[in-house]
Every structure is written in structure tokens, then in C-alpha cells.
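User: Predict the full complex structure for these chains.
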Amino acid sequence: MVSKKQIQLVNSLKQKKYREEHQLFIAEGAKIVPELLRSDIKVEQVFATREFLERHTVGENIECIEVKYNELERLSAQTTPSDVLAVCKIPVHVFDKKVLKGKLTLVLDDIKDPGNLGTIIRIADWFGIDTIICSKESADAYNPKVVQATMGSIARINLHYLELSELFSDLNTSLDPGKSFPIYGALLEGEDLYKKQLSEEGIIVIGNESRGISGAVEAFVNQRITIPSFAHYKSGKGEAESLNAAIATAIICSEFRRG
Amino acid sequence: MVSKKQIQLVNSLKQKKYREEHQLFIAEGAKIVPELLRSDIKVEQVFATREFLERHTVGENIECIEVKYNELERLSAQTTPSDVLAVCKIPVHVFDKKVLKGKLTLVLDDIKDPGNLGTIIRIADWFGIDTIICSKESADAYNPKVVQATMGSIARINLHYLELSELFSDLNTSLDPGKSFPIYGALLEGEDLYKKQLSEEGIIVIGNESRGISGAVEAFVNQRITIPSFAHYKSGKGEAESLNAAIATAIICSEFRRG
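Assistant: Here is the predicted structure of the two-chain assembly.
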């Protein structure tokens, strides 16, 4: 049985303002919730049907509320609720520029669409990229739509929201004085992604869905890359004008990792 | 000014049943509609605001109705309507197995999500794949959500809905007697996509979002490929369990085309 106060709290977490106030987010579904329970994410409450609870173990220190399916309908952010919903603590990842050393990191310059952000988090996880830095204007990673689109990958990625110009401004001095730290950006004009020598260390900047990488961020890009379309290869002119931001991310990450 | 009858027709086209009955579909937006007007797609009607019509030319043989923005709200399938909506003829592409010769073709085995289908059509267009064959159970490509997600690419791709087992059953005899026509399938167990020699001719089968490639179709796959995750490379076990179907399509197409 779920109380009015619980319904209120869970529903408030669909809004960023209340997620920030309570430092909580919601996740749903028999695939994602068990993954979060196994992860480092602190799950505070689980609302689940008897059927779910018969098949899954919820830790003893987690408040577990058995509910009817129609009660889940009053909590869920989904069109079709599943049989479990968890309230989780937003993890605190302290950012230190040193974590950038020796590995690849994604930087998102205003990714606005929650579905794209969730998909990009899942792609990062697939390709073993464990840190994503989002500009402050990017979609909120703890928006229920993002959480669902990550399919559980959100539990394994360190997410940071930073002012990108501050991040980039003293990167070279703080990481490797005298050497420029590779900052890759996918741009319309750049070196052919498939022909360029790609490093195992660096930042890959992904631009906003409609305007791409902003001028302020582009100024810091020192490795300009471009994904040539096959039509471009054949005829010198492209057909599809652009790729979706998440699709471009997948192609770029695949190319970095294929070795 | 838009009539009641026009509102009724346009709204009926949000349902597959009426799209099939009228052989019409709708497309919206100042990016997609002008692309359709320039393409081989037969546009029958354009509903647009004065602002749109001042900036774009609509052919003389197309019925063009100037409307107010609030009238577009009554027609649109979008949450936020744009300033133009077109009613278009569903193109008729006659299928002949011979078109498969000498090039790559995508076959979709029950892609159900309209957003995924639209994104896959856009990816195909980017990589110069001009034919997509969908199983009969796949999402309808003329669903407004699919059309929007293609960003205009739907005008350049030949789409067919076929019974896949019929397609595959006599492929070798009809195309290249005595030689097996390459049918690639992305499966959990298969050759490493990044290491396999990929041909310039063949079919790439993409499976359903949750169950992958069906058993009936897998039986015809003669080139089993798998996308290794980077985590898999490093530790022998994957982190993210799977990739979204459209993301997998992008990675596979990129690998085929990079040469």
C-alpha cells in the first residue's frame, strides 16, 4: 500500500527542481531496477508488485513497498508502467581533471534530447568510456526518460555537469604542461574519421542536435574530425545531411575502439 | 482556411489502416517538407502558414492551402506543430530480387519502434544504402513518427515489406546459382565485426529490439557477425548488455563502408 505522501514525492521527481532538492531520481522496470540494486547506486525505496518480489531479492536496508499494479500507474513516468519502480540517490561524483589522463572521455556540448542523452550513456558504457562531462545546458541525466534509455548503464558512468570553457581553459597546464591534450570534435570540416590516427587518450566532443558544437567550445578543439557519408565518398556530395547526435557518437566511439 | 473534411482526412492518416486505404502519408516541418517537394515523392497537398509560403515555393500542380498556426495544431501529429504539413502519396516500389546484386541492402526483422525505424532509414541514406526490406511485422515506415525521424531520408530509400522467409528461400538460385549470396546477421555469437572481411555485396539483417534475429531468419544467415564491446575486449565480459538496434545498425554500416 502506497501513501499519499509517497505518491507525491515520486511524482515530484519527474521535475528537475525536485530531483535537485531531494537529490533523488526514479528508475523503472525489471531490467533496470535489479541492475541498480547490484550497482553502487544507493537505492532508497522500491515499489514493486508481489510478482516482482517473488522473483527478485531486495536488500534488507532498502525500504520495500509491495504495491498493486494500479498503484504503480499512479507513480510511474512511463506510458505503460512496469512492475517495479525504485527511488535512488543521485550519486555524487567529484570531478578532478586528472581522471582525464590516459583514457577517452565524452564531452557533451548541450545535448538536449533525453532519449539521445540516455542512448549516449549506453554507448559510452558499451565502449568502456566511464566518464561523461555534460555542459550545464545539457538535458538532465536523472530525467526519467534518460534513465530508461540508458537501460541500466547510468549506474556505471561517472557523470559531471561543468562549465565547458572552464574545463578546457587550463587543461594543458593542469594535465601535461607543454603538450596539448587531444580534444576531438566532430565538425563539418575536418579530417576523415576513417583515415585519421586516433589516440587512446583524449576528449571527444559531441555537439548539440541542431547547431552542433558551439563556437566557444570549437575554439578548444585541436583535432577536427568529420564522418564522411558514403554518398560523399562516391559522388562528392552527401545525401542525408546529418546524422543524429547519438548515431554520430556510436560511429566515432566504434572507430576509436576498433584499433 | 482548412475544411472539416481536410482535418478529418489528415487526422485519419495517423492510423495505418487509413494510410493504406488512401495510400497517403503526412510529413511535417520546414526541413522535411521542402526536401519532399524536391524529391520523387508525389506531394498532394501542402498546409502552410503565410510565413512558410513567403520563403518557399510549392509547385503549381500541388494543392496549397494557407492556414493559421492554430489550424495546423488541429492537423499535426507533433506535440509542437511546425508551420507546414504535407500530404504525400506512398511511393510504390516494385521489388525484384535482382536489385540486391552488387550492393548492400538492409533487412529489418521486426523493428517495432517507429523512432528506431526512422533513424535506421536515415543511417541507410547516410551510408548510401538505397534499399531497405522490412518484415511484415515491422513498424510502418509511413507512420508520422517514422517519417519525422528520417529527417527527409524517407524520400530517397526504396522500402519494401516482404515475407522474409520467402525473400531468403530461393535467393541463391535466383541471384547467383551455385554461389551463396552473403547474408550477414548481427548475433551474440559470431565473428568479430572489426576483424571480419566484409563484402561490398550482400544483405545485412538487423533483429528486433528485444529478441534479436528470429530463429526462422537466423537459419538463412551465412555470415554471423558480432559487435564486441570494449569492456569485452579488455576483461572478457561485457558491461552494457546490448546496443539499441539503430546504434548497432550505425556501427555495422560504418564498418562495411569504411573500407
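The longest helix of chain B spans residues 245-258.
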